[in-house]
Amino acid sequence: MKLLFSWLKSLAKLINLTRLFIINAVFIVLIAIIVVALNVDDQTIHISDNSTLHLNLNGIIVEQKNPVNFAAELSSQMLSGEQQQIKEYQVDEVIQAIRHAQNDPKINDILLELNSLSGASINHLTDIGKALNDFKSSGKKVTAISDNYSQAQYLLASYADQIYLNPQGMVLLQGYSVYRLYFKEALDNLLITPHVFKVGTYKSFVEPFTDNQMSKASKLANKHWLNQLWKDYIDTVVTQRSHSSLISVQSVSPSLQELKAALKKVDGDAALYAQQAGLVDHLNNRYEIISKLQDNADLSGHKLNLVDYSNYQSTLPKLYSPKGNSNQIALIHGSGEILAGSQDVGAIGGVSFSKLLDNALQNKNIKAVVIRLDTPGGSAFASEKIRQQVLALKQADKKVVVSMGSVTASGGYWIASAADSIVASPTTLTGSIGIFGMFASADKALNKFGIYNDGVGTTELSTLNPTRALNPELGEIIQLGIEHGYQQFLTVVSEGRGMTVAEVNKVAQGRVWTGSDAQNLGLVDKIGGLQDAINEAAVLADLKQYDIKVITPAVSAKQQFINEMFSSNVQQLGKSLQLNPTILETLDSLQSQAAVFTKFNDPQGRYAYCPMCIIK
Predict the structure, then answer these.
(1) Interior CA angle at 543 toward 541 and 549, to 5°?
(2) Is there a contact between 377 and 344 (Cβ–Cβ < 8 Å)?
(3) Which helix H or strand E contains 296, and what residues bound it?
(4) pLDDT, averaged across the chain
(5) DSSP letters of 183-215?
(6) Do 406 and 514 contact (CB within 8 A), yes or no?
(7) Most exposed: 65, 264, 313, 386, by fewest CB within 10 Å?
(8) pLDDT higher than 50, residue 501
């Protein structure tokens, strides 16, 4: 026994020493990083004459950059080795750089390198595209290059004067789709009983748990807006590529028979097919392209000077810099799913987002508020809490305009409906006015293994438990609550939009609409982007001169320091673990469809949510 005690004591000491060693090692690494960061001289960026703005967007384009979580970042760095970094580019900053370069005499043209652009919404791409068109209108050129073009990358590339493709590359245009995993048979086999409560013919979030395929109503509704988005994509590409006599609708969206026949003519050479279809202008690798650009520069009497986007952006004034006006328009961004309580950036919290609106309410200089929403919805309770704060702004005689991003549906529309004016893009996905709740019982599965739930309670309500069968009357009570929530949703929209409840119900039922449709149906006032919404707010508030005040969640000085230090080192955990992309895609699909069970936290279990509305 004494020997065992001595051995355990030695083991405890070893564990404690190991723990201290790891803690000290991490601490030393942190100190080293801080010392290096503090001793790096600030590099002065000098933009020379005859420069080319190099838009090398190696990451994703977002509405707002997410602050870096230090613990997650450190773990990722330790695991990831030398994997490629994922960066976030704020869309309005990219547009600012392009517009500034348009009037910058030192910038001759733009080189748009798209190899590593890994994510962007349709709206973001078209907004940047419009800025590129304005840039070209000044007589400056835009050149796009990539080894391959994904659908999103190519949409942005279509705004270029010339598109280059690697001779071994391809342009992959698949169209838009909504495909989901359906679990009914799996749940049946597992003896799990899903209890679904919903109102809205087209409110299809719960279908995967009750069926093995998409309903006819959902297919009809989804096909309608998917076709609109795809037509808009085709029209954009054909219009932007009109200088090519080869481009056509069939170039962008051929049938399988047309694609096969065209590829046979070029012996399956995807790059040559893209050129012959008018999708690209030239087939060259990157070295050849840079050499050609250098030759063109030499002919103009100067050397090729590529100015990195990040460096150029760092020389620009801060977005919405104050001009000293006492009248202000507040700009508040809300992105992600709507959840109850306080949430970090990346989600819209009922409490935390309301605080941002309250900041605008308490500021006497703020005369109008623009709320930029990009959300598929979520908690009905949190949505209503935020809407109440919007009403408080209006009661204080502050005008409220909602600018819809790529998606402002369900709970997002619940909030938006209270605004004085709603501005959306033609491809914004909105509406989805419906509501649902869900509860699953595993009693049959437990019974099969000889496990039973029994006991006593003070009321019949106390029997609500996932390990017990759901009392039918209790199910009817829950359904009553969901139906009340739907009627509340209709009333909210009716009051906000000046429509009758019956009129709202006709365009509701959980159906998704594009911004163009929503305007025709009276759900949206104007078609436009964020700047259009700001202009609308100025008109409504009768402001001739004003400053834009961006209201964001408060960040401590310590956290801000950490964020800035590590913001350039965010890496993708999936890549660091080298997971198969197919596995990652499947896991992502499962996670998004299981959101109602994992992270949604509505106190009444009522959700106004549209997962299909997230189209990249």
Answers:
(1) 90
(2) no
(3) helix 286-299
(4) 85
(5) -HHHHHHTT-EEEEEEE-TT--TTHHHH-SS--
(6) no
(7) 264
(8) yes
Residues 414 and 517: beta-carbon distance below 8 Å = no
Query: Among 79-83, 277-281, 402-406, 492-496, which is the least confidently predicted range?
Result: 79-83
Q: Where do the domains of the chain lie? A: 51-175+223-314, 328-562+603-613
Of residues 113, 115, 67, the one with CA closest to residue 90: 67
Q: Which of 77, 122, 73 is nearest to 231 (CA)?
A: 122
Comparing C-alpha atoms, which of 282, 231, 288, 198 is closest to residue 483? 198
Q: Exposure string (b/e) for 65-75, b if CB count within 10 Å is 16 or more?
A: eebbbeeebbe
Measure the CA–CA gap between 16 and 6, rounded to whole angstroms: 15
Q: pTM to 2 decimals?
A: 0.83
CA distances from 568 to 33, 35, 58, 310, 444 (A): 13, 17, 11, 11, 51
Q: 343: how many CB neighbours lie within 10 A of its CB? A: 22
478/180 Cα distance (integer angstroms): 26
Note whether 51-175+223-314 and 328-562+603-613 share their fold: yes
Please state, as a whole number, how many other Cβ atoms lie within 10 Å of the Cβ of residue 37.
12
* Confidence label for 68 from pLDDT (cuts 50, 70 and 90): low
Active-site annotation, residues? 203, 410
CA distance 612 to 592: 10
Q: Determine contact, residues 433/413, Cβ cutoff 8 Å.
A: yes
* pLDDT single digits (tens) 512-554: 999 999 999 999 999 999 999 999 999 999 999 999 999 998 7
Burial 201-221 (b: 16+ CB within 10 A, else e): bbbbbbbbbbeeebeebbeeb
Cα→Cα distances 500→402, 416, 507, 541, Å: 21, 17, 11, 27
**Domain over 51-175+223-314 is classified CATH 3.90.226.10:** yes
| Cα→Cα distances 428→61, 156, 308, 445, Å | 16, 17, 31, 43
328-562+603-613 belongs to which CATH class?
A: alpha beta
| Residue owning tokens 């003070």 | 458
- The Cβ of residue 344 has, within 10 Å, a number of other Cβ atoms equal to 12
Neighbours of 391 (CB within 10 A): 13
CA distance 176 to 163: 23
Instruction: Please report the sign of the dihedral spanned by the C-alpha atoms of residue 499, residue 503, residue 508, residue 509.
Output: positive
